[in-house]
C-alpha cells in the first residue's frame, strides 16, 4: 500500500518539477472573491451574498475545475453542514444535512438544475439524486444552501437546496475542451462551447462528456462507461427572455458496497485476502446471473451494467417584464428516466465455511451432516476457510416527472413581493428480482457450489446451490408510487434601512401520494421439467425451494399532505464587508417510499417529518479574506428509519432528534497571493430524543440521548494552495471525518473510526492550456464512511462489514480554453 502511495506522489512531483517554463499571465485563483458574488438559490431574486440572510456556499466553474472532483458527492464535501459519504463510487452516494439522519441518499435536500429538481424526490429506493446528474464543464456554478429558506422554494428540502446552474452563451464565442486519464484506466473527454447565433439576441451553449474507466476498485470489467450531452438556446428581447434546453444522460456506474474488515481495538484493518483500498465483491468472476423463473422464462442480469440510468430532460424558461414593477417567471421541465440497477449486496459478514454448512439454522447454518464445496467455474473441490453469501440485487425503475413553477414578482422602493404556484406530477414504477449467491470471501470472489457428498447427485436435496446461486429469486417486488404536488408560496423582502433587511416566506403544500404493491407467493421448479445440469431435476437442489412469484392481488394506498412551511429572517450589514443575520424556519419532509410500502395496510402509522431550525450567522467578505460562522439548532419530529435488510425486509422505527452545531467556512489569500487556504468545518451534537420502543422481535429499546447514527460530531476540509509562479500551482487537500456510530444503540462493536483523507495536485498554465495532475487518498487511508446498514456485526467475531473510501489514485488532464 505504502509503495503505491509513494509512487503516486513521486509521479506527481516529477511531472511538474521538470517543467521550468515561465509565463506572464497568472493562473486564476482557486476562489473567486465573495464580496461581489450574486446568489439566486433560496432567494426571491438575484441578491448579493452579503445581503442574503441564508447559509449558502458558492463555487464557480473555475473553482470546480481546479478541485476536479471525482464525483458530485466529492464536490459537496466542500460545503459545511453537509456530511457526505463518497465511498459508493461516482454515484449512489449519501448526503446528510446538518445532522439530519436518514437511510441514505439525498432525503432532506433537493438537488436542482437551474432551479428545478433533477427528480422531485431525491431519495426514492435505489434512486439517489446523484444517479441522474453529472458534474461536467456545462456547469457554470454551484450554489449550496443549508436549511433556511429551502422549504419555501422547494419540496421535501428542510435540509437545503443544491442548485447546479448551467452555462449560457454570450456574444463572445468561447469554449472548453478537456482530456483526462488516470492510474485506473480512465479515458474521458469533456467539451463545452457557447456563443451568439444573433448578436445580443439569440445565444446557444452545448457541451457534455464521455468517459470510460476500470474503477479504482478492481472489478475486472469496465466499472464506469457512458456520458451526457446538455444544450440550451436562449432568446433575449426587450422585456425578458425565453430559453429552451435538453439533456441526455446514458451512463453506467459500478456501485461499491460494504466489504469485510477486522476490528482491532478502535481501528479497522484489512480482512485476510481482501484489499481494503482496491478490493470489491463486485467482480467479473461472479458478474453474471441467468436463472429460470417459477412463472416461466429466465431472468438474466449483468453486474457490469451497475447503475445504468437513461435520462431525457426537456425544459423551458420564460421571463417577462409586465410593467409597473411587475414581472413573471415560468420554469417548466419534463424528465423521463429508465434505470437498470444491479449491485452485489453482502448478506451479512463472511462465515467460517464449516460453520455455515454444519451449524443449525437457529445459529445461521444449514445443518448439514456432511458437506463439500467446489468451484462453479471448473468443478474443482475446494476447502475455503470463509465463505460469503452475497445478494445479487436487480432493480428496474421507470420514472417520469413533469414540473412547472410559475411566479410573479412585484418590486417597490423598499423591497419586493414574490408569489408563486408550483405544480409537479411524478411517478416511479419499480420491479425487484433478488437472488443470493455463494462465493469465496476474497476481493476476487469465485462462485461456490455446496453439496452433501454422502448423497447421490440424483437424491432430493443433494445440493444447496444451483451454479453458485444459493437462493433463486427469493424476493420479487412490483410496486409503484405517484406524487401530485400543488404548492403555493409567498416571499416578502423589506429593507428597513439601507443596512437592515427583513425576509418572510411561506409555502402551503397540498400534496397527494398514491401507489400500490403486488403480493407474492412462493413456488419451486421441482415439477417444471427443467434440469439443473441436463440430467438432474430441480428436486436435487434446495436453491429454488422459496422462489417468489407475483400474484394478482394489489394493495392500493393513498396519502395526503396538508402542510404549511414558513421562515422569518433578518440581515444587518455592519459595513461593506461585515454582516450578521438570524433565521427561523419550519418545514417538513413527506414520508419516504419504503415507509409507504411497509405500511400500505395502515398508513396512520406514518407521519411527515416536521423540522424546526434556528440559525444565526456572521459573514465577512473582502478581496483577500472570507469567513462565515453560523451556529444552528434544529429539532425533528417523526423521523422514520427504513433500512432495507438483506432479506428484503425493513425496519419501521420513528424517532425525534435535536442538534446543535456550528458551521465554519473560510478563505484567505496571503503573501501577495502566493498562499491560498480554503476551509470548511462543522461541529455538531445530534441526539435522539424520546426514542424508545420495541424491535421487530419484541424486545424493547431505549435510545433516548444517544448520538444519531452515522453522524460525525466533527468534520472538516482544509485545502492550502501555493502559487509557486504565476503559472505553476500546487495544492494539498485534507478531509477529516470524525468518529461515528453505525447503530442507534451506540454500541462499541458498531463504532466507525475517525479518518483523514489527503489529496494533492499540481497544475501548470501555458497560455490557454492547463496541465494538471490530481491525486486522491494519496496515503491509502482505510477510511470508513459507513458500516453495513443491512447487517451490522457478526456476533462472536471481530469481522465488521463496512464501506471504505477508494484507494490512492491519480488523474492527469489537459484543458484548453478558447
TrEMBL record:
One of its GO terms (molecular function) is siderophore uptake transmembrane transporter activity. It comes from the Bacteria. Keywords: Cell outer membrane, Ion transport, Iron, Iron transport, Membrane, Receptor, Signal, TonB box, Transmembrane, Transmembrane beta strand, Transport. Residues 1-22 form the signal peptide. Residues 49-160 form the TonB-dependent receptor plug domain. Its main location: membrane. PROSITE patterns: TONB_DEPENDENT_REC_3 (PS52016). Residues 284-774 form the TonB-dependent receptor-like beta-barrel domain. InterPro entries: Beta-barrel_TonB (IPR000531), Beta-barrel_TonB_sf (IPR036942), Plug_dom (IPR012910), Plug_dom_sf (IPR037066), TonB-dep_rcpt-like (IPR039426). GO terms for cellular component: cell outer membrane. Coiled coil: none annotated. It is a multi-pass membrane protein. It is found in: Cell outer membrane. Belongs to the TonB-dependent receptor family. This is Outer membrane receptor proteins, mostly Fe transport. It comes from Chryseobacterium oleae.
